[in-house]
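Not sure how to ask, but would you mind making up any protein sequence you like and the C-alpha cells describing how it folds?
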Amino acid sequence: MAQVDACCLNPSYRIRVLKALVARRVISTIIVIPAPMRSLWSLVAVGVLLGAPPSVRAAESATASVVVNVRFLTRTTLKVSAEVIRFDVTRPDQAVIAAVDFSAAARTQSGGEVVLTVESLQAIDGSISVRGESVGVGGVLAPFHPVIAGRWIGSGSRAGRLEFSLCSSEPGTYAVPLRFVLSAP
C-alpha cells in the first residue's frame, strides 16, 4: 500500500506524488487535463474504452490504495469599526465610554481556542478598561500589553462590541490608537 502524507495538496505536489507512483509502477500513465476540459475528456475516454476490442479492454491492470492525511492550517479574519478610540472628558469624576464593534471569523482544529486581544499603542493620563458585551472577558489596558477581550472554542464567526471606559483626572479630548489581534494558537 502506498502512503502519502501531505500538509496541503497543491498541484505541484500532486504531480510529484503521481510521478513517484509511476516510478514505483503503482500506476502506469499520467494524463494531466485542465479542469474545464476534464468532463469532456472523461466522455472521450469512456467512448474509447467501450469501442476498443476486448483484448485492449482486458489489458493488464493494477490496483493500489493511497492513504492521504490532510491537516488544515488555522485562519483568522477580523474587522473592527475603529482602530482609534476617542474620549471627550468633560468631568473628571465620571467615566467616559467608547465602543468598537467587531466581526471575527476563525477556522481552527476541532475544539481549538480562538482569542481576541486588544492593546493600547499610546500612554495617556488615566486608565482605560475594556469589556466585551457578547464575549464576557476584559481588563485594564496598559500601553503595549495585550488584554484578552474575547475567547471562544471552535471555528465559526462571532460579532460583538467591546466597550472602553476612560477614567481621567484631566478634562480634554483623548484619541487612543489600538491594536486588535485575533489568533487561534
